[in-house]
Amino acid sequence: MPQRLKCWRPAMKKEDISRLYSGFEAILQKDMDADIEFWYARDLQKILGYFEWQNFEAVVRKAITSCENSGYDPRDHFVNANKKVLLGSGAEREIDDIPLTRYACYLVAQNGDPKKTEIAFAQTYFAVQTRKQELIEERLGEIERLSARKKLTSIVSIRYQMST
């Protein structure tokens, strides 16, 4: 009888979870004018344990394909951009980068190397954060509907009183 392979791996240490969580939060960018949160792919690359941009760019390309195949326009979630980086000589150089929405980061994590602890954590992190955002938006929608219902009830009540 063939022997089964053991796939068990010990749970992540609290220090690793804390480090990775803090890392994701530290590189989070916020555009207050557009009211949007995003991450730069090159920043995310480092936290996810990819040392070569070419390797990580392949993961991003797979995530873009996943986005397209899900019926979404990748241009809404993956934006090509350039940014300047400081070289050791003190000079600046422009490099390609990709601002990623939360959904794009989720897709990148889903398409990354699952053997990497950082990817496993990112898969959970972005799934949980996305769900939290969905719940917040759902709750805000409920509050808006309740407010509209109260206003409508008030208007109907006033009109009824005026007609009697």
Q: Could you walk me through the main structural features you see in this protein, from its secondary elements to its overall organization?
A:
The protein is α+β, with helices and mostly antiparallel strands. It has one domain. The chain is built from 5 helices and 5 strands, in the order αββααβββαα. Helix 3 packs across helix 4 (102-111) and helix 4 runs antiparallel to helix 5. It starts with 13 loop residues before the first helix and ends with a helix. The relative contact order is 0.11.
> What are the low-pLDDT stretches, counting only 5+ consecutive residues below 50?
none
Q: Give the number of domains.
A: 1
Element string (H = helix, E = strand): HEEHHEEEHH
What is the average per-residue confidence, as pLDDT, rounded to a whole number? 81
Cross-sheet strand order for the largest sheet = 1-2-5
Number of strands: 5
Structural class: alpha+beta
Please tag this protein with its features.
elongated; 3-stranded antiparallel sheet; alpha+beta; single chain; 164 residues
